[in-house]
Model the fold of this input.
Amino acid sequence: MKKRRFLAIASALLVGLSVTGCSSAAGESAASVQSVAMLMGVDLTGTSQYSGIVEAKATVKVQKDSNKTVEKTYVQAGDTVQAGDLLFSYDTDALELSVEMAELEVEQLQNSITNYETQIASLEKEKKKASSSEQLSYTLQIQETELNKSEAEYNLKTKQAELERLKDSMDETEVYAEVSGLVQSVADDSSGEYAYSYYDSGSSDAYITIMETGTYRIKGTVSEEKIYSLYEGMEITAVSRTDDSQTWSGVIESIDTSTTADDSESDNYYDSSSSDSRSAKYTFYVTLDSSDGLLIGQHVYLKAGGDESGDEIVLPAGYLVLEGENASVWAADSNSQLELRSVTLGDYDAEADTYVIADGLTLEDYIAWPDSSLTVGMAVTEYDDGTFETVVSDDSANTEYEEGEYEEGEYDEDYAEYDENYGEDYDEDYDEDYTEEDVTVVVEEG
Done:
């Protein structure tokens, strides 16, 4: 019961701290400010911030002509191919038979058109000799024959176009790889299903799927708390997990916020951008300047920029106080007091609703979210990634108290009323005998 009471008090203090700021010794409220580095997802100690895995930049899907029959396939899943390698060939005998059948149908249609023309000419001659009562009958026969001729002419054009395609396909009986890479999967031509897949590439209508090698990119994982600290075009450095002297530079090409990263992917990687494993994680993709030395499936660490001191500072627009063309932020000054500091804005990203801060802020500065309660000269409480420390405690509590200060029985007796009426009618002796100094609040991260 004792430790539970301490936890309740600590929770109440923490809630008040996060919503209204903390209290100074004089009872004045203090503004909560966060480090710009924390908001940017930059670790000033140099620790890698995000996890990443090397993957092929492109996957090429080779389709099969549904009008042709594959005669032989020269590759299988798991093979490495070079651009120009033969993948599969079509059955030329079947193609030749198709061409012959198409030529025969074209000839038949041409003969039908000739016959229709002969019939029309004959009917017109007979119509001239017929009586007036027979004129209508001949006119109807001529119109019907002309309609049949028009239909045959249309079918002839269609079949001639098909014949040309078949003849052209006779010159394309072999299919070659357009890129160098690893064959991910090969479909079973008889059933249309995959016989085997080297990687689980999911459902596809492609006959052969090739994962291009030589041009790699890195798929990174970021938590929901830090997703908005990233932006397209942002400079990224990839660091080898086994040798931190091996690095690769690149930029973020895209950020996917439409779906969350699979737990199977994100849970296996280190991600210092999130302290809560239950936090949603998203993926972003980094295009590399050079992929020399990287391997498909290799795990790397990712961090913003190459030299943190030169990184661009990008803030959500909500942190800015905008008045016409002027912009400012609520920032902590050198005396740990709040000031309204002017900043120079750079580019604006409408999609992410963020501004580049060209001048006026550094990664080491601390800023507050604009609030009507903020005033110039207000005391501040600073927060960054190192503020909260995860503490492993026993199952009964996450708090500590001054050892030997209170006996178990005495505590329970004095504060029984407080336990029943939490936050309302607690023993008045609490304020005198059990001050805030006697409580050490230990906050578990997350």
Remarks:
- The radius of gyration is 38 Å.
